[in-house]
TrEMBL record:
Keywords: ATP-binding, Cell membrane, Coenzyme A biosynthesis, Cytoplasm, Kinase, Membrane, Nucleotide-binding, Transferase, Transmembrane, Transmembrane helix, Transport. It is found in: Cell membrane; Cytoplasm. The gene is coaE. GO terms for molecular function: dephospho-CoA kinase activity. The lineage of its organism: Bacteria, Bacillati, Actinomycetota, Actinomycetes, Micrococcales. Pathway: Cofactor biosynthesis; coenzyme A biosynthesis; CoA from (R)-pantothenate: step 5/5. This is Dephospho-CoA kinase. The chain crosses the membrane at residues 16-35, 55-74, 95-115, 150-168, 195-214, 234-255, 262-282, 322-339, 351-372, 410-433, 454-470, 482-502. It is a multi-pass membrane protein. ATP binds at residues 586-591.
Length: 792
């Protein structure tokens, strides 16, 4: 039935989610309009219990989300992008921040920028603080920053991370239920998924309605304060209608043309107004106060993160902190989906850092300028106590901003500018909300019929307007009670989403590889070692006198080597210059090695040493048999290289196991031959697996020979008789040219004639080897000495 109705209306959305949400919104709005008292009474009982008895859940839950967001950003998952691995951000930093801030808490900052610091200044909630004192002022700014800073943004960031990951990484529908996919699987399209989406749509509608309602009341109050316009529900409904109309035009224009431009304009105008207040206030005192308030916020943050006003019966916490966080979390599905949409292509680390750090820094500056300016006016001779009277005593918080601006020049101009900024802030909240509500209901971001966006924008405006007209302040209070109740399951859902996001990241990124460390032998004092040497029950292979590690247990990427006795011995026997020569199979590396040998270098072929290490009867061959099975040993006892190649090429784990067996033995032989070459030799180690064995740090110079992969495959096919498939398998199994370039001091590109290759080898010798030889000869002639690496 719903599907048929959906098709008749020409919609392109999810029928069940759309119509059920719409029905509940309509029924609830009518009930609140006709029976505001009973509705508020019913929800008030539950809301009161949640605020004052279970308020700790909101405080603790929000703090846990902060810890989760920061921990995730600092973890290895922080590098993962919200989108494909090669995706890039769609919007510039300024445009992105403008939309982020406008859709988030920009509107509420205009409302509470003056009112909240003054409330906490006059009625300090922290124990033992005197009202209207310097301590109360500092704490008031810290508390205001706490309510609108990191914690409030964590309520938006974590859902944003979930939606961004599941929508743009796993390509699931842009719905809240998509975040439950690790638990529900394809049942996200079933009843439970639809229930979650309906709750999210409703919470967004009511959360936005509260914001727009407060905005209409503030605009009406400002018009009354500036122009003498009366305050009435009908006028506020008209203001809501204007906001809704502008939001509709913006939403229909789309994200790039409408919301982006309005957000950019709004953030610029808000900054202009902010700078104006700073200029006409006590500027240097305000700047000092901003810095001091930032410190007070950070120093009080651990305490405030768990503050529940225990000795006040939880009343202040319930009225302020719980209300803020319950309100914010009700529209976190909308803001989360929106900021995820505009943040596609950014990494989790960049997303969390920017979404927590930048808005919080702006909030600190905002409250610092407006709050300190308000304190200054409230303490000044002639206006002393004026703001306290209006905001705290009279409860007219809507007029707070305009009364502050009245104390400065150009009052009419700045008041009108403030009204424009407030209107645009609420417009950008409503138009972005209409877009996201449409996406949540339809399950896709493709542009659907415009009537759907119109419906959601009008729904929010209608809910707010009807309540303001029929019930006034009581209706808005009833709606506030409702969002406290709705906020409880949405907060629980946000915590659940965080856990499911972590599970999805582990599934997609895999488990981190175990950290590989050196395994050291047990060191005994010399006298104890000799004592045990004369006792038969001790195995001396388990002990050493000098600190030493087990060969073969080196870390995967050996950036530094410990200064052990054996390391010192290896360095003492080192040649004048050691060169690590590497390159892909059939790259021409052996030709370069031959040219270097002709110029006097001692060339050590690691492949030859590896073949010698696996001679019949060798310990290495026995370990290879145990690791890979008897089928890799030929009938004559030699290693069957073809059989082994079939196992290791294309299998990273198998190749690493083979390297673990051969590399330590090959390294020992390289060090032995290098020592025998003498301290004045130029030693070249032809090491194909230099990158794979992380051996670059063992050489003074690393030289790589590079040839296009197609040319190498052709050589393997025509010169070595390999099949095309086998040749490509050999090439793909080795390190890439880019990986070799990362560790190389010099690259020879072998893509021309043999003469060109010889000429490139000569240039390498002249640039890297000959200067060392010349310096050595000069030092020797002068009677000096030379240490390893050619440095006198």
């Amino acid at each position: 039935m719903l599907t048929r109705l959906h098709n008749r209306l020409g919609l392109r959305t999810g029928p069940a989610i759309f119509f059920i949400s719409a029905l509940i919104v309509v029924v609830f709005t009518l009930a609140m309009a006709l029976f505001p008292g009973p509705v508020q009474g019913a929800f008030g009982v539950v809301s009161s219990y949640l605020r004052y008895e279970v308020g700790w859940f909101y405080t603790l839950g929000t703090t846990l989300l902060v810890v989760f967001a920061v921990g995730l950003a600092l973890s290895r998952f922080g590098r993962i992008k919200l989108g494909d691995d090669d995706s890039e951000p769609e919007f510039s930093g300024m445009a992105w921040f403008g939309m982020l801030f406008a859709a988030g808490i920009g509107a509420t900052l205009m409302f509470w920028g003056v009112a909240e610091p003054m409330n906490h200044y006059a009625n300090p909630p922290l124990y033992g603080t005197d009202p209207l004192s310097d301590q109360a002022a500092t704490q008031a700014l810290a508390i205001s920053n706490f309510h609108f800073g990191i914690h409030m943004w964590a309520l938006l960031v974590v859902p944003g991370l979930c939606f961004g990951y599941f929508t743009y990484k796993r390509k699931l529908p842009p719905r809240v239920s998509s975040a439950l996919q690790p638990l529900l699987g394809d049942r996200i399209h079933g009843p439970w998924g639809k229930l979650v989406d309906i709750i999210s749509v409703l919470s967004t509608v009511f959360g936005l309605a509260v914001s727009v309602g407060l905005g209409a009341m503030q605009i009406n109050s400002g018009m009354n304060y500036v122009m003498g316009v009366p305050i009435s529900g009908w006028l506020q409904a008209g203001i809501v209608a204007i906001i809704t109309g502008i939001a509709l035009a913006s939403a229909l224009a789309g994200l790039d043309k409408g919301i982006k431009r309005l957000s950019y304009l709004n953030i610029v105008l808000a900054i202009v107004l902010l700078v104006y207040v700073l200029m006409w206030g006590a500027t240097m005192d305000t700047v000092r106060g901003i810095v001091e308030s930032a410190g007070a916020y950070l120093s009080n943050l651990p305490m405030l993160s768990f503050f529940n006003d225990t000795f006040g019966g939880g009343e202040w916490s319930g009225d302020w902190t719980v209300f803020y966080y319950a309100w914010t979390v009700t529209w976190s599905p909308f803001v989360g989906l929106f900021i995820a949409r505009i943040s596609r292509g950014r990494s989790i680390r960049a997303f969390v850092t920017a979404c927590l750090g930048l808005p919080t820094a702006f909030v600190v500056i905002w409250f610092g300028i407006y709050g300190l300016s308000a304190f200054s006016i409230d303490r000044a001779e002639g206006t002393a106590g004026s703001l306290t009277q209006t905001i705290v005593t009279d409860g007219n918080v809507e007029a707070a901003l305009f009364q502050l601006l009245q104390s400065y020049p150009l009052y009419l101009v700045t008041a009108v500018l403030a009204l424009i900024v407030i209107v645009i802030f609420f417009v950008t909240s409503l138009d972005s909300g209409a877009l996201v509500l449409d996406s949540m209901a339809s399950g896709h971001e493709d542009e659907g019929p415009k009537r759907q966006r119109v419906f959601w924008a009008v729904s929010v405006g209608l809910v707010c307007a009807v309540i303001l007209v029929t019930s006034g302040e009581n209706g808005l209070n009833a709606l506030q009670e409702v969002i406290i109740v709705i906020g409880a399951p949405v907060m629980a859902l946000a915590l659940f989403q965080a856990w499911l996001l972590l599970q999805a990241l582990r599934e997609d990124a895999g488990t981190a590889r175990p950290l590989r460390t050196r395994q050291w032998k047990r060191v005994l004092p010399i006298e104890e070692y000799h004592r045990r040497a004369h006792e038969d029950e001790h195995d001396l292979d388990e002990y050493v006198i000098r600190p030493e590690y087990e060969v073969g247990t080196e870390p995967e990427y050996e950036a530094l080597q410990p200064n052990t006795y054996h390391r010192q011995q290896a360095l003492e026997g080192r040649g004048l210059l050691t060169i690590g020569l590497t390159g892909g199979i059939a790259s021409g590396k052996s030709l370069v090695a031959r040219d270097l040998a002709q110029r006097g270098a001692v060339v050590i072929d690691a492949d030859e040493l590896a073949r010698a290490a696996v001679a019949p009867g060798s310990e290495a061959l026995t370990e290879i048999r145990e690791a890979f099975g008897p089928e890799v040993i030929a009938e004559d006892g030699h290693l069957d290289r073809q059989a082994l190649a079939e196992l290791v090429f294309g299998n990273t784990v198998a190749r690493e196991s083979l390297n673990d067996i051969l590399h330590p033995r090959v390294r020992q032989q390289i060090q032995r031959i290098a020592r025998e070459a003498g301290p004045e030799a130029v030693v070249v180690v032809d090491l194909p697996l230099l990158v794979e064995t992380a051996s670059a740090g063992e050489f003074d110079v690393v030289l790589t020979v590079e040839t296009p992969a197609e040319a190498r495959v052709s050589r393997l096919v025509h010169e070595r008789g390999m099949s095309m498939q086998e040749a490509w398998a050999r090439v793909d199994a080795q390190a890439t040219d880019a990986e070799r370039r990362d560790v190389a001091h010099e690259v020879i590109v072998n893509d021309a004639s043999l003469n060109d290759l010889s000429e490139a080898t000569r240039r390498f010798w002249d640039d890297h080897v000959q200067p060392v030889l010349d310096e050595h000869r000069a030092t020797t002639a002068a009677g000096g000495t030379v240490t390893d690496g050619g440095t006198p």
